[in-house]
Amino acid sequence: MKKQINRISLGLVLATGLLFSLNACKKLLSITLEKDYQSVQLLIQAPQSAGTFTISKEIMSDLETLASNNNFDINKIESAKLESLTVDIEDTNPTPYTFDIVDAATASLSADGQSVLEVASDDASQVSPTQMVMDLKGVDIAPYLKSNKFNVLLSLTTNTAITHDVPLKATLKCKFVVKPLK
After folding, report:
1. 125: which residues sit within 8 A by CB, 6+ positions away?
2. What is the pLDDT of residue 97?
């Protein structure tokens, strides 16, 4: 009888330990990482007529480094989403432009083997005269960021002609979900 109680007690301890272990493993099924692409330099080249035009910037992806630094394979990235996309005007001209000249904006990504994907838009509402925080579409951008390089495309609709070059800086904040046990 005493042996049976000891076995039952041991069984309960092992079962409890197994439940704790399974719960801990469940938490490891996915990891969330963040990555910022800061200082993506764009340039509106003058002269530019009022209307819609697109500017782009090629970015060399560094997800292999992110994956390596966090001890996982890049193919373990399940999804990636933009957390924010801001665009700043860095015009130092004596008569600088502001986002008052922009009626609408869209941001897209492109990469080899992928179609162009619209990731954000803005209806000309800005945080400040020189900063625009774009409205995100909530789409999965993992295939673009996993590429060796990808392009950020910014389409602007302006209400006036642009007579001097206007430097812009975009900042993309991304969140990745990684499934290390995949």
Report:
1. none
2. 97
The predicted model gives 77-89 an average pLDDT of 95
Q: What is the pLDDT of residues 101-150, one digit of tens each?
A: 999 999 999 999 999 999 999 975 678 999 999 999 999 999 999 999 99
Among candidate residues 154, 171, 163, 160, the one with its CA nearest the CA of residue 103: 160
Q: Are 151 and 52 in contact (CB under 8 A)?
A: no
Strands (E), the chain: 31-44, 51-60, 77-89, 102-111, 114-122, 131-133, 135-136, 149-158, 166-178
Sign of CA dihedral 138, 153, 44, 156: negative
| DSSP symbols for 86-118 | EEEE---SSS---GGGEEEEEEEEEETTEEEEE
Structure tokens at 82: 């933009």
**The model's pTM:** 0.81
Distance of CA 153 to the CA centre of its chain: 14
Reported as a single tens digit per residue, the pLDDT across 4-23 is 555 554 444 444 444 444 44
Alpha-carbon distances of 161 from 91, 157, 166, 170, rounded to whole Å: 15, 11, 12, 22
